[in-house]
């Protein structure tokens, strides 16, 4: 029976400065040795990777396995969401937050491939915005502006690029006026940051929506109301431990559907650009089956 398991392996070859292609080859070898039939696929860009992923799911593969970071996972989500086809992850990116959520090793490709071989699954919620799904957190504030800047930078690589973009934006960033609709309840306020979490972290372990559960059918909405730039710099390291939740300007809400509007901000989720605000996000319970 084992030799009838057909796995699609979709790789972003540019993930982690070419790490994606290297780890994909190692994972493929291990999956084949375990008796799986592996169909390797490599898109030249995200659009082609998505076409390949959709085709693989339509062809009835037992699992769609993506090799890359959260951006590549996001491609996989669009193909498997609500289909019941499990998503497997071989982490090879910068942030790898979705892999963190389901306890997939970020350093050990053999351990990540072993999870695919074992075939155990979990069912998780996804968030949907404009017909696109995401698994992590929608950045819709200061963090999104920093992300937009980071995407224009070619140096340095990885997490440090986001840290530098954050510092650069801090010089001029001012609180923005927000209008939020949370399941029909309207909030109007000024804020530095609004984040809408399906899961608890983004950006490589920044636990902005600390406490978010991925199977409760709810989105976690975090608001950081106006604080000084010095205070923001002091609070930033606390995001890695989730201890920012005690800050007096921190606010937390739960909702099934969220609309967020503010001038001059482009929403980002799973490291991908979703588009300018206003945007509406809804929780889609049980939309993702993931190998975990």
TrEMBL record:
Keyword ATP-binding: yes
Residue ranges that the Swiss-Prot or TrEMBL entry lists as coiled coil: none
Family annotation (PANTHER family): LIPID KINASE YEGS, SPHINGOSINE KINASE
Obligatory cofactor(s): Mg(2+)
Name assigned to this protein: Diacylglycerol kinase (ATP)
SUPFAM superfamilies cross-referenced by the UniProt entry: NAD kinase/diacylglycerol kinase-like
Lineage: Bacteria, Bacillati, Actinomycetota, Actinomycetes, Propionibacteriales
Gene3D superfamilies linked: 2.60.200.40, Probable inorganic polyphosphate/atp-NAD kinase, domain 1 (3.40.50.10330)
Top-level division of the source organism's lineage: Bacteria
Residue span, DAGKc domain: 2-133
Keyword Transcription annotated: no
GO biological process, one term: phospholipid biosynthetic process
Sequence similarity: Belongs to the diacylglycerol/lipid kinase family.
């Amino acid at each position: 029976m084992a030799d009838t398991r057909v796995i699609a392996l979709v790789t972003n070859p540019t993930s982690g400065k070419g790490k994606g292609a290297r780890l994909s080859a190692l994972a493929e070898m291990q999956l084949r040795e375990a008796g799986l039939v592996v169909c390797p696929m490599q898109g030249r860009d995200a659009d082609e990777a998505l076409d390949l992923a959709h085709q693989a799911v339509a062809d009835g593969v037992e699992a769609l396995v993506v090799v890359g970071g959260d951006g590549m996972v996001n491609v996989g989500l669009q193909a498997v969401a609500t289909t019941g086809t499990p998503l497997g992850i071989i982490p090879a990116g910068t942030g790898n937050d979705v892999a963190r959520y389901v306890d997939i090793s970020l350093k050990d490709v053999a351990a990540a491939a072993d999870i695919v071989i074992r075939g155990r699954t979990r069912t998780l919620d996804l968030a949907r915005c404009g017909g696109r799904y995401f698994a992590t957190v929608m950045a819709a504030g200061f963090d999104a502006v920093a992300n937009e800047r980071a995407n224009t930078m070619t140096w340095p690589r990885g997490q440090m690029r986001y840290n530098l973009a954050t510092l650069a934006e801090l010089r001029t960033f001012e609180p923005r006026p927000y209008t939020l609709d949370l399941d029909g309840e309207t909030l109007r306020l000024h804020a530095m940051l609004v984040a809408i979490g399906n899961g608890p972290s983004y950006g490589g372990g920044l636990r902005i929506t600390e406490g978010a559960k991925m199977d409760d059918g709810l989105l976690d909405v975090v608001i950081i109301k106006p604080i000084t730039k010095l205070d923001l710099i002091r609070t930033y390291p606390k995001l890695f431990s989730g201890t920012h939740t005690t800050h007096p300007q921190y606010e937390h809400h739960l909702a099934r559907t969220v609309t967020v509007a503010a001038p001059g901000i482009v929403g980002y989720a799973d490291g991908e650009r979703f588009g300018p605000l206003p945007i509406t996000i809804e929780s889609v319970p049980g939309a993702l089956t993931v190998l975990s």
